[in-house]
Amino acid sequence: MAWKKILTGAMAAGALWAGVASAEVIGKVGVDWVGNDIVIEAMTDPKISGVTCHVTYFDRSIIDRLSKGNWFEDPSNNSIACRQTGPITIGDIDLGQEGEEVFREGMSLIWKTLVVNRIYDKANDTLVYLVHSRQVTDGSAKMAISTVPLFSQQVTWTNGKPK
Questions:
Q1: Cα angle at 97 between 44 and 146, to 5 degrees?
Q2: pLDDT tens digit sequence for 55-94
Q3: What is the pLDDT of residues 86-129, one digit of tens each?
Q4: Which of 138, 88, 86, 140 is closest to 118 using CA atoms?
């Protein structure tokens, strides 16, 4: 899968250039005899230290791609879990209702991208992380969320806590 490594490297470089987090593969579990895997990546939020998200996705093998066609695309099934993993320091984050994109990784050659957005729920003093697939033509309804409550936690806001 040399083409996928090249593509992933190019996307990682683009993600760093755009200020989006990068992820590290921490696990890979084989799920069948043709070589399909579930990949687990650890992602840190570039604007919030002390929070780590673990994202899972399905990685199709070459055998599966050849036998079923649809050569350049992985399924949209994703999962996420985020937890406090150290002292939390929150930088200049988008406080709007749509939040901001903190991670992106290609799931097809051009058309599909796995995305993690962070939204601050001010009323409940909670960080919400949403993982979903963005597609050019048809949006996917497959998504997952994880929350990191800030209530009663020692949190440092570099620009002061929003009022």
A1: 40
A2: 988 776 667 666 666 666 655 678 899 999 999 999 999 9
A3: 999 999 999 999 999 998 876 655 666 788 999 999 999 999 99
A4: 88
The answer to whether 126 and 149 have CB atoms below 8 angstroms apart is yes
Residue entry with tokens 């979903």? 132
Within 10 A of 84 (CB to CB), how many other CB atoms are there?
Answer: 16
pTM of model > 0.85: no
117 burial level (CB within 10 Å; 0-12, 13-18, 19+): buried
pLDDT: which is higher, 18 or 130: 130
The residue among 42, 26, 120, 114 whose CA lies nearest residue 82 is 42
Domain ranges of the chain: 2-157
- Exposure class string for 25-47: b at 16+ Cβ within 10 A, else e: eeeeeeeeeeebbebbbebbbbb
Q: Under a CB-based contact definition with an 8 Å cutoff, are residues 92 and 61 in contact?
A: no
Decide: helix, strand or coil at residue 151: coil
- Residue whose entry in the numeric block shows the structure tokens 């200020």: 19
